[in-house]
Specification:
Layout (H helix, E strand, L loop, with lengths): L1 H27 L4 H9 L4 H6 L3 E2 L7 H6 L5 H6 L3 E3 L5 E3 L4 E7 L5 E8 L12 E3 L12 E2 L1 H11 L1 E5 L2 H9 L5 E4 L6 H9 L4 E4 L5 H17 L2 E4 L11 H18 L2 E2 H12 L1
Helix pairs in contact: 7-10, 8-9
Length: 282
């Protein structure tokens, strides 16, 4: 049974790796011109594109399976990896179409899932979602994975600190600015499993740096539910309410490493932040 599970896991890892490589190659080709232009507008450097293995999915219903068949990846493996959705009458279609692709890796750097962002000007999927993620699979459990941890773990080990943000672009923007201990939750609240992962990197303190919007301001309380019982120190850094919407990515681009470092240095303890918020409400 263990042997069978290992075989299945390896098949899914091979499917995810092949998809990541294919989408990255598409981004670098003439088919990725619009996506590259968008990344340039967002201030993402070529080095970051390579480092984070960004890619682009084709605007076609069935592109992935025939492309990866040549690489020895079966449609069944793509279905189990959450990349192809099976039709009731047989066959299947791609989950990610005309999207900027963010491979999500385990701590060892192996790709286990993906996030996909609808490209500006493209028709979003049926649900109209700007972002969609790989569904839960044998490899990918969103409560047990942190985006960017494979690239942040050495910086976390050295500083014993992690910066927790919400989105893919926030992680990329902070790393690009030189704040390389930044990681993100993948569309979920911080969980005890996330805290355990950070603990394995010898992390002793987590600074929550979320947007200044309503959802962002609710994030520290959710983070506290996972951090405090685990005995992990928590802090909250609040983004200044500048003209227009500001998120960690935009802030890092505008103010650089020195600005982010100053913001993090002014972070308040999590418990103090939550008490002050309650006092303000009453």
């Amino acid at each position: 049974e263990q042997k069978q599970r290992r075989k299945e896991r390896n098949e899914l890892l091979a499917a995810c790796d092949a998809a990541a490589r294919y989408w990255a190659a598409r981004l670098g080709s003439r088919f990725g011109a619009d996506a590259r232009r968008y990344l340039e507008e967002r201030g993402v450097s070529e080095e970051s594109i390579r480092r984070f293995r960004l890619g682009v999915a084709a605007d076609a219903w069935s592109d992935l399976a025939p492309r990866l068949k040549e690489k020895g990846v079966s449609q069944g493996a793509l279905v189990r990896a959450g990349l192809v959705i099976e039709k009731e009458k047989g066959g299947g279609y791609d989950r990610f179409r005309n999207r900027l692709m963010f491979p999500i890796a385990a701590m060892d750097g192996q790709v286990i899932g993906f996030g996909g962002r609808a490209l500006p000007g493209s028709a979003k999927d049926e649900k109209g979602a700007k972002y969609i993620n790989t569904p839960e699979t044998a490899l990918y459990k969103k409560s047990k994975v942190l985006y960017g941890l494979d690239l942040a773990r050495e910086a976390i080990r050295k500083t014993r600190r992690a910066v927790m943000v919400e989105g893919y672009f926030d992680v990329i923007g902070l790393h690009q600015a030189g704040v390389t201990n930044a990681v993100a939750v993948c569309g979920t609240a911080l969980t005890p499993e996330h805290v355990e992962l950070l603990g394995r990197c010898d992390c002793r303190e987590v600074t929550v740096l979320f947007d200044g919007d309503v959802a962002g301001l609710a994030a520290p309380a959710k983070a506290a539910a996972a951090l405090l019982p685990a005995g992990m120190a928590g802090k909250v850094a609040v983004l200044p309410a500048e003209a227009g919407k500001s998120d960690p990515d935009e802030f890092a681009r505008a103010h650089g490493k020195a600005g982010v470092d100053a913001l993090l240095a002014g972070a308040v303890p999590l418990s103090e932040f939550l008490i002050d918020r309650e006092v303000e409400r009453s």
